[in-house]
Write a structure and sequence with these properties.
elongated, 11 helices, single chain, 212 residues, mainly alpha
Length: 212
Amino acid sequence: MKSFFKKELFLWQAILIFIGITSLLLLAGFYYTNQTKLANSNPVSKVDQEMLKLEKQVTKNTNNPEVYVKLGSIFYSKGALKEAKTSYAKALTLDKNNLAALYHLSIIFKEEKDYETSLKYVKRLLKIHAKHAPAKFILAQVYIDMEKYSDSEKVLLDIAETYSTDADYYYYLGFVSEKLDKENIALQSYEKALSFDPDFWKAKLGVKRLNQ
């Protein structure tokens, strides 16, 4: 009799274990399916993938300034300006003459309206590479923001050949010329900007003001 109950008990234990394992497998399958759907509906962006790669590179090679420059560019593209500045600053600690880091820091500080700091970085860059046209273009824009229109005009005229087909360049030249009461040059510059970009509304406004 005892032997019969032992066999019966063993049978029920086996059934319960089987049910338990089956339930766990079903739950695992359900979880995996949902996680897969979630992952597919929220794929990792190319920017995030690139950032993950760079973070691995940073841990492997902490003395490569170019890794920090790339990391800064990705942070900047995501709007994380604080992190971008930290990355570019780190690049400069490893290479004080890193042009890309200096250039991007000047842009970020300009966007944050910290014009003095922006000026510091762009002038530092130009001491290293005096003919760096993009840096001069940023310098001219910083001078405009600081209402130093004569200084901006000098820089813009210096890079005229490089930006001879750039609508933004001619808009800024027009704006500066207008501020300096050089209306003919301003009007010609605005019109030149519109010849490259007919929808440039700021240039359109400039032409409208000067034709009133």
